[in-house]
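Entry 12.
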Amino acid sequence: VTLHQNGSWPTSYHREAYWCFAVTACIGCTQNGDFFRGLQLLDTAVILGLPRRQISAFFDYVENHATNSSMYAHWLSCKWRFGKMEDYSQRSVARDRLVRDGLSRPISFPMEECDFSSLSQREFQDMYVAYSKALVIRNFASSWPAIKKWCDLDFWVKEHGHRTVPIELGSMMKKGGMKEQLMTMRKFISSYLASSSDNGCWTLDSIQKDTTKDKIAYLAQHQLFEQMTDLLNDIDASPSFCGESGPVHINTWIGTGGTRTPLHFDSYDNLFVQLVGCKYVRIYNSDQSEKLYVMRKKDSPYGLQGNMSALDCENEDFEKYPLARTSEFVEVLMFPGDCLFIPSRAWHYVRGLSTSISVNFWW
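Predicted 3D structure (tokens):
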């Protein structure tokens, strides 16, 4: 009850007690042959912080039996077809239309970019990581199976439609904010992603209308690979550009068009990889912080960590925030296969121009 009311556990003991309850309840479900319900309990526990590695053998056992159960066979027999999301990995009429209509204004301050084939790991570390300099690496992930495979909504429904995932509904950047809801991947696709894909390009003007507030949904900054480990086969889970130690966290972002991540910074170096769809990204160096009106706890619940800006990027109120008028930024359109290096503590804002999927690696 406290978690639902306040959005956090009172203490770590409450969280761990919930994990114990979920695993115990799952054992009861499996003894009764209800592996589907057992998997839902484990999915929810992992979403709420239970490291899968602590129960990896048991999780694998439940997951395998749920997939082989008669209920899963019934699930697959249902006659749904959701089709594919638009493939923007190659130049096309649809991609040109997205560039023309999706941007609120033409790209004026382009980010430095290069092709993956022309950049060595040593050059990347010495010229960009060492100097905290943002860089777009085109074709970084063009050979990953996810580029083609994850466009297919039917793949997600068939293989993972029964899995429980956390979805943000609405937007942090609109009045009323957003709320988080647990739902199956199938419901997420049927209720949000499928219609978003039919819509094609999402403009800034369209998402600011009240009529779209119930159509925007985001599986955001979620460690999906903790739940669905087989998805790791579709990406490079430890890119060499993340250094010898590899990534600390891998997050997945699956959303409708119109998602907006407010201007903020993270404490990790970040490789942000676009796999499906297109996103607009803007980056301000950390030396611009004094012009970006950092939110504090008294300003908003989102200001607790001191890493969020009050600016509404692409729709700035320069009368209210005059220093922002002279702030400097670089910007880019990310297409499937592209990678963006976002240095630690660099401010960044992201908007989805279409239904899209991304992963990012913190290291």
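Annotation: The chain has twelve helices and 13 strands. Residues 247 and 363 are 4 Å apart (CA to CA).
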